[in-house]
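Supplementary Methods, section 5.1.

A reviewer requested that the exact input to the structure prediction be made available. We therefore reproduce it here, unchanged from the version used in the analyses.
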Amino acid sequence: MKPFLSIDNLTQRFPDGTGGELTVFENASFGVEKGEFVVILGHSGCGKSTIMNILAGLAEPTSGVVTMDGYEVRGPSLDRGVVFQNYSLLPWLSTLKNVTFGVAARHPEWSRAEVAAHATKFLAMVGLEGDVIHRKPSQLSGGMRQRVSIARAFANHPKLLLLDEPFGALDALTRGTIQDELLKIWGQMEQTVFMITHDIDEAILLADRILLMTNGPFARVAESVEITIPRPRNRTEIIEHPNYYAIRNHLVQFLGKRSKEMSGQPTEAGKTNRPVPVRIDKSEPADDPEDRRPALSAVNG
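The structure derived from this sequence is encoded token-by-token as follows.
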């Protein structure tokens, strides 16, 4: 049985300016289960944003198929919500109307009062209440604008929420606050999420699984790392979990070394690139308490 979101043999090539083609990634295949929070990590140029645009229906792959809930993804849809790094709010509308705009399109049968009440509820979930919801985006801080973007996306109840480095432009304190709010809403709604980030600690905090991409060209999704840290997660306590640094060290080692070593290798004819599932867990207690190091196990599938 296929997962809720299925990416099969996805390939993207672009003209290289010399009459040839540049293969960004090739024959990528992976799945995302319903309600799962998946993060993708990789260096610039490996095709993360291109994959995101294809999932959003904003770009067409050179070859391959994306299916969601049994239907092929073709073009944008209210079933897929996107939160971009640059907020993408409508500057002439108030905070509230930026949210009601999408809600009204999603639920044309609702009254204005119902639409406004629904939008106000989701703005409150990200900490925006009172007079602030009547301000224009230019009157909001960067953190507030991103909260509006997140509230707008969740309020439409998309089947898939796509997050394209949504916290990249925020300071560390604001980022941490909004990450907590995102987790709170996600936990209440059982939302399926696919997210791009360059922040390893953010990925560990938020994700159920992390997909690791090799460098381009001919990039591929090489590993699928399970985050073996129970939820709910707290940023001040997660670092005390015995698996935290084992997972973090594995991600750093992959991105710092192996992603480059595995790059630039075209796929053999007829072969599908599926990520190797990786589960990292602490080892059995050693005789010497000082030598209790985490163990890593990779399961081929």
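Helices lie at 48-56, 95-106, 112-125, 142-155, 172-189, 200-206, 244-261. These observations are discussed further in the main text.
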